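Researcher: I'm preparing a figure for a lab meeting and need a structural model of a single chain. I don't have an experimental structure, so a prediction will have to do for now. The sequence is pasted below. Please return the structure as tokens so I can convert it later.
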Amino acid sequence: MAFHELVENQRKYFNTGETKKIEVRRQHLNTLRKALEENRDKFCEAVYNDHRRAKELTSSIEIDGSLAELDYFLANFEKWSEPVPVERTPVLSQDDVPMLVKDPVGVVLVIGPWNYPVVLVMAPLMAALAAGNTVVIKPSEVSANTSKVFENVMGKYFDKKVVAVVQGGVGETTELLKEHFNHILYTGAPFVGKIVMTAAAKHLTPVTLELGGKCPVVVADDADLEFAAKKVVQTKWVNCGQTCIAPDYAIVSPKVKSKFIDEVRKAIHEIFTDNVKASPMYSRMINERHFDRVKGILDRSKALPLIKTGELDRNDIFIPPLVVDVRADDAFMEDEIFGPVLPVLTTENLDETVKHISGGENPLAVYVFTNSKDVMKKIWSETHSGAVLGNDIMSHVSVMTLPFGGVGHSGMGRYRGKFGFDTFTHEKAVLLRNVKN
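Model: Understood. Here is the structure written out token by token.
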């Protein structure tokens, strides 16, 4: 089916008003839940074939995570859909009724990434459906196995006028972006985000961009170093470092640097054993191109190795966990690494740390390990990022009452829970005057 025909068929269905009905939205969410539950194994197998990621990890992170958010939507979306009375101002009479009425925006395009190819499509998809929209999904061609499962599963459970999956690479995506959508959500790299935003501007289509950036982990002198190291290892090397909110680099002082490195070394051994390559818990780079990209940074870098757990193997697209000692001008500090290398930057004090973070592009998250409320407050008040976490990493994405999104170079807009519902909803200003019944 031609893209134009596909989009216009969805718009035609949307214009019938059917998707505005609460019972229809609930049916769509329940259908999505059924599709996930009944095809858990297919999705986990596909992600394993794309990433060599352990199936139990995908089941927990991507499937269970999606089901939990679906349940949250099912419990709350009807309440969120109700008109909201607003405060009267002096220009209004006692009989005037001002309120916000929630309207779905229309036909939504979700362009998914390859690194978490299930949950990062499911999360915006359920939000858009809960808000009463139709959705076109463009999964990443890089995670080809998962993309095919998406097409088969969605085609089985949904009519294309409600949810449709479009396959293809750069050429097909370029053609798809020529169509008129009412909202576009893209997850991926900043340079592609600019292309998406440029295409959207031709139709004055609003966009939500979920990008990335160099998310720092600040390890203060008073931190529990063993705990901090374990959290870093658990999150940096899941999915072989290919996580947009993974810690990109660590910042420590000379006082705790050696001890922190020792604890990281121990944590790597505990989680992945001495033979990381044989560990079922260690994934691979998505393809040779991304292997070469990370190796290219390694070749340009002047960083000194602190921890090396194996040799690179292009045939197996395997890059082991690496920890390197860097200066601020090193190749590893230029852009988001999106791979299994952890640079460690040394700063003399907290002011220098804040200056470094603030001097670069805004990250998607800043992580801080400290027992001091003053240190924590200085970080969240003097740096700019999508999120700040104290004594944990990445857990904010599982809190449905918090938004997920970046700022500046790390993205624009937000979703998850009600924030996702609001993203795909137009709040219409309504004023009723002299309405008696």
